[in-house]
Amino acid sequence: MKRYTIYLGCMIPMRFPSIEKSARLVFEKLGAKIADLEGYTCCPDPVLTRLAEDEFSLALSARNLAMAEKMGNDLLVLCNGCYETLIEAEEALRDDDLRARVNGILANEGTRYLGKVKVRALIDVLNEDFRPGEIAAQLKAPRPVKVACHTGCHMLRSKLHPRDRVRILEDVAVASGAEIAAYGKELDCCGFPCAIADEKMAMDILISPKLEAIKSSGAEAIVTGCPTCLYQFENSEAALKKLGKETDIPVMHILELMALGFGFSPEELGLELHRSPVKTFAQKKWGDVPG
After folding, report:
1. How many independent structural domains does the chain possess?
2. 270: phi > 0 → left, psi -120 to 50 → alpha, else beta; which?
């Protein structure tokens, strides 16, 4: 049995419990065992915190890594931003002198990071440990759904070519029963955290053109592997609606799409907590799945 320690980050527990529920159901269906990382903190944020104080940021990451290290499993990270933070911290802390300084900070609470935990992104675990074929074999309620995939910037920063990272998410979506809608802006940013600094610029340059391209592609929903990107899409659609621009495209996490395809009902997943019409869409497509 495959075993993982799960790192949920901040966004999922605070805003998208349906993603956590979907993760637990999906990995149980795939025959994997998930252990919770008790007492973890923010990763921290991959942009803003590191601008404030790099070594403090590393100490926060190292504390999370040290806790996961003690559990002996690969660390399964469900958020793109959290993955970037933790994998970059893991790489930086391979330096003996830097790790010694950071461990000096961690000593204040009696812990130490040894550099032995393997940090893994959700889409890599799905693609490498289970493969699309194994995922497709679990489908109980496949539905004809056309989706536009958004991988997210933080997941594109890897040794793989960005389009290969996009293809991994698309392959998992196809294995979950979806058809891919190509829209030409798959590598473009969702606009977060740019919107924190200048919301109008983010809306005009990044978000609106991407949503318009997705709408023109005929996609029925947007599928992403990043909860922060999901948050940004949903908030942007709500803002555009206030301006009289109707862009009510459901925005789903890949784990929610998988859970629906695996036969779990929209009611089981708690999809009503989305700001975009995910539950209405899911009920239309998967409403006949027993709750």
Report:
1. 2
2. left
Last residue of a domain, one of 66, 93, 122: 122
Q: Is residue 99 part of a domain?
A: yes
CB 154 within 8 A of CB 196: no
Joined together, the tokens standing for residue 260 give 């629906």
User: 131-134: long-range contacts at Cβ-Cβ below 8 A with a sequence spacing of 24 or more?
Assistant: 132/171, 132/172, 132/174, 132/175, 133/175, 134/30
pLDDT, block means (10 residues), the chain with 291 residues: 96 96 97 97 81 83 97 96 94 96 94 96 95 93 95 78 86 96 95 83 91 96 96 93 85 98 95 95 89 59
Peptide bond into 193 cis (omega under 30): yes
Specify whether 104 is located in the same domain as 18: yes
Domain interval for residue 65: 3-122
Burial (CB count within 10 angstroms: exposed 0-12, middle 13-18, buried 19+), residue 92: middle
**How confident is the model at residue 158, as a pLDDT?**
67
**Each residue of 238-258: b (16+ CB within 10 Å) or e?**
ebbeeeeeebebbbbbbbbbb
Residues 98 and 138 in one domain: no
In this predicted structure, what is the pLDDT of residue 78?
96
The alpha carbon torsion through 135, 140, 146, 151 (nearest 10 deg) reads -30
- pTM exceeding the 0.90 threshold for the entire prediction: yes
